[in-house]
Amino acid sequence: MAHTKAIGTTKNGRDSQPKYLGVKLADGQTANAGSIIIRQHGTKFLAGQGVRLGSDYTIYASMPGKVRFTTKRKTGFNGDRRIVKVVNVVPN
Question: Fewest beta carbons less than 10 Å away: which of 29, 54, 80, 88?
Fold first, then answer.
């Protein structure tokens, strides 16, 4: 007996689900406490004031307010400086 069916079998056809990463609330939009602002892998955006960083690097609001995106210079451990994007939630 054959180990696979004669018709209609294929070894591909499997794919993972999309991860739906990216910015969920834009600059100036209102965020409630606990609402997700950014879903990301790694720290492309840093958490500023009024937001927290989840275990999967999700940035979410810890208080209600308006979303603000800013930049700042950050010095790494090896002395290199780079400009990073920071997400804040400021009260209304």
Answer: 80
Domain CATH number, residue 26:
2.40.50.100
Domain that holds residue 84: 22-90
Q: What count of Cα atoms within 13 Å lies in the side-chain half-sphere of residue 44?
A: 10
Q: φ, ψ for residue 84 (rounded to 5)?
A: -115, 155
In a domain, 4, yes or no: no
Domain count, the chain: 1
The Cα 57–Cα 59 span in angstroms is 6
From first to last of its 92 residues, what are the pLDDT tens digits of the chain? 666 666 666 788 888 999 999 999 999 999 999 999 999 999 999 999 999 999 999 999 999 999 999 999 999 999 999 999 999 999 98
10 Å CB burial of residue 46 (0-12, 13-18, 19+) is middle
